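Hello,

Our lab assistant flagged a job as stuck in the queue for most of the afternoon. It eventually completed. Since we weren't sure the result was trustworthy after the delay, we are filing this so someone can double-check. Below is the sequence as submitted and the structure that was eventually returned. Let us know if re-running is recommended.
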Amino acid sequence: MELRAIDLLPIVEYVDEYHEGNLLSLSNWLDSAIYMFHYLPEDVFTAHERQDICHILRQLKEVFVEIYSNQNNW
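-- returned structure --
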């Protein structure tokens, strides 16, 4: 499957609408989600599922921080 910029438009619209275009705001919310995810009851997700989901959330956060850094030439 090949992604195109148009395929990612819903993500851009979400960031614009709910985070006022601020990728660091979204990054902070992802940090909170990762933290809180560890406090869900053990019977909701297996340890392996929890690890996999947190890994994906961290990867998304890294991508958003990288995009933010590139936009601001940090």
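-- support follow-up --
The delay was a queue issue, not a problem with the job. The result is valid. The chain has a mean pLDDT of 88. The radius of gyration is 14 Å.
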